[in-house]
Amino acid sequence: SQKIEQNSEALNIQEGKTATLTCNYTNYSPAYLQWYRQDPGRGPVFLLLIRENEKEKRKERLKVTFDTTLKQSLFHITASQPADSATYLCALDGNQFYFGTGTSLTVIP
Amino acid sequence: DTGVSQNPRHKITKRGQNVTFRCDPISEHNRLYWYRQTLGQGPEFLTYFQNEAQLEKSRLLSDRFSAERPKGSFSTLEIQRTEQGDSAMYLCASSQWTFEGGQPQHFGDGTRLSIL
Q: CA-nearest residue of chain B to A93?
């Protein structure tokens, strides 16, 4: 079955720094990978999608990379702000939709 | 775009009772998904619909769980004979699927179920 692993530990960074979150997957070769943000008590919110033929995707302060050889995606938030504090989830689409366990990010002012 | 709506937001019930949740997706979306999420975990896929057809159901889903999407609009998720382990957040999402794939899912804020 599909297995998706994200940073197991919570990530604390100083405001203004770049946060880097990892997503590793096994047993599958997805055509694309998605990243979502989730705040406590709320449903996930879509952020970015990257397809297998794309190495990198950017949206404002967000950047996602996708290495299908390593079976890994990296999610970067540059110039981080306290408002970026949340849990970030990566997700793959197969015959089902698989989410990782999420990485909790705290940006310290 | 009024977003995905889920009702109720919270449900507290005694073990052994049946519960039903409702999800109203974004109106033009043809796909609807149900997930379960427990604390510290990502959403776990339960089932999804393409219009009114239920196309996939997780093998982890016991026979106590059933979902419907009559007329391809709103959906209901029923849990019969609830157990303590059913306590979780139940999330619904919708998307407009195309052959290109990768369309983002739009989530509701979930129904939190607590089993006493």
A: B102
Q: Are A89 and A34 in contact (CB under 8 A)?
A: no
Segment B31-77, tens digit of pLDDT: 999 999 999 999 999 999 999 999 989 987 889 999 999 988 999 99
Q: What single DSSP character describes residue A90?
A: E
A44 in contact with chain B, both atoms CB, cutoff 8 A: yes
Angstrom distance (rounded) from CA B63 to CA B56: 14
Taking contacts as CB-CB distances below 8 angstroms, the residues of chain B near A43 are 4, 91, 93, 107-110
Are the C-beta atoms of residues B38 and B85 closer than 8 Å to each other? no
Provide the mean pLDDT of chain B: 94
Tokens of A85: 């504090």
- When scoring A46, A57, A64 by the number of chain B Cβ atoms within 10 A, the one with the most, hence best to mutate, is A46
Contact indicator for B48, B34 with CB cutoff of 8 Å: yes
SS3 content of chain A, % helix, strand, coil (to 5): 5, 60, 40
| Dihedral sign, Cα of residue A30, residue A36, residue A40, residue A42 | negative
User: What local confidence, expressed as pLDDT, does residue B98 receive?
Assistant: 86
